[in-house]
Specification:
It is a single chain. Helices cover 61% and strands 7% of the residues. The strands form 3 sheets. Strands 1-2 form a two-stranded antiparallel ribbon. Strands 3-6 form a two-stranded antiparallel ribbon. A two-stranded antiparallel sheet has the order 4-5. It contains 11 helices and 6 strands. The chain has a domain at 84-300. It has helices spanning 2-11, 18-47, 65-73, 76-110, 114-153, 155-161, 195-201, 211-222, 232-259, 269-277, 281-295, and strands at 52-55, 60-63, 168-169, 173-178, 187-192, 207-208. Strand 4 (173-178) and strand 5 form a beta hairpin. The two termini are 34 Å apart.
Length: 333
Amino acid sequence: MESTFLGLWIFGRDRLSPKLHNLCIWMVALGTNLSAFFILAANSWMQHPVGAIVNPDTGRAELDGIGGFFEVLGNKILWVTVAHVLASAFLVAGTLILGVSAWWMIKATRAGQDFEARQLWRRMTRFGAVTMVIAGVLTAGSGHIQGQLVAEEQPAKMAAAEMLCETESGAGFTVAAFGSCADGTATHLITVPYVYSFMATNDPNAEIMGLNDAQEMYAERYGDGVDYTPNEMVTFWSFRLMIGLGMLAIAIGAVALWLTRRGRLVDSPRLGKIALWSMWLPFVACSFGWIMTEIGRQPGWWYPTSPTPSPRSTCSPPTASPPPSPPAPCWRR
C-alpha cells in the first residue's frame, strides 16, 4: 500500500488531478501508520508477552487463537508505545521542515527576496517549529507514561536506566554514572532525590526495585546461572541521550518561534547552519530510545512476564523432541 501509492504520488504529479494526487500521499500516510502499528504490536509483545501459549511439542510460543490476537492488540504496552512513536515521528518531521525552511529563509532574506522569505520560508519555519513544540510535549508525556509501565513490567531495565543498584524509597535521578552495580564499582554523579520515584510511579516517596534485587528475583524465578541484568552503561546513557537530544530539539523549536515572532525574519548565516545541523537531533534521540528499549530487554529476545505470571503466560520445557543443545530458560527460546 505504501509503495504503490508513493509511486503514484511521485510519478503522477503531472498525470493525476490535484485531488487524486493529494489522496495518494494520504494513502501512503495511512499505510505507514498501519504498518507501524502492527510492527509495534509485535515489539510490545516481546516487551510484555500476552495472548500466547507455549506448544509443549515444540517449546514455541504460539498465538492463542483469535482471542490471543485481540490480547496482543490490547496489550497495555502497545498503545502508549504507538503514541510515543508517532509523536516522536512528528518531532523528527517538524525538525526537518524547520531546518530546511530556516536555511532558505535566511538565504532569501540576505538576497533581498523579502516576499519569498516572508510568505513562504518564514511561514514554513514557524510551521515546523510549532510541530516540534507540540510533538515534543506529546513525546515527553507519552514517554512518561511508557516509563511507568516499563518500571512495572521490566524493573531491571528501568533500574539500569537509572543505575539504581539497591531498592530504595525516594529514588533520585542521576545525571551521570559509571561502573557497574554487579561488581560494586557504580559511581553516581549529581543525583537529584525523589525524581526517579516520581517518574516511575508519580509518587516521589515510592519504593523502586534496584538491579541487585531484580537479579535475585529473576534468578529465583527462572533459574540461577544467568545474568538477567541489562548492559548498565548502554541502557543508562542511551536513556539520557534520548531525553537530552529530544529536549534540545524542543528548545530549538521554541527559540525559532521566538526569533520569528511578529513578522520578524532571520538573516544570520550562523543560525542557518545551526538549523541545518539540528535536523539530526530527534532522529538520533529516537535511535537511542530504541537502543535503550531493546538492549534493556536482554538477555532474552522476549522479556520475562510479570512477577506473578499466569499459567497461560509462563512456559515450560518441551516434553517431546528435546533440543540437542542444553536447554536455556524457556522464556529465552
